[in-house]
Input
Amino acid sequence: MTNAGNEQSLKLWAAACYLFPVALFSIVFQAIGAIPKNKKVLFHAWQCVSILAVAMVAILVFEIFNLFFMINLFCLAWLACLVFLAFKAYTGNEFRLPILGAFAAARAGL
Output
């Protein structure tokens, strides 16, 4: 595969990481060597996993305090964030969320 084709493939993997199951698969596949090890793809995978963890905690807090109307707003904002991050990853930009991005970068070795 040419260098440009390989770079495009890695951008596609990075964008696909924001689909949660793909994020887990990309972490596992890079660990076992099924796909080329790439720190940027791993960064996007860890950032997606981090966002999901924060979303689960936030939804749990909203349910505890009976703020069910906030769950819908939060889910829309979360979805918009994932679409934005997937777009940024596909265009080759690395957008780091304030706290989660630093955690993901540390896990990915960036």
The longest helix spans residues 39-64. The chain has a mean pLDDT of 82. The CA atoms of residues 47 and 103 lie 8 Å apart. The chain has one domain: 3-108.
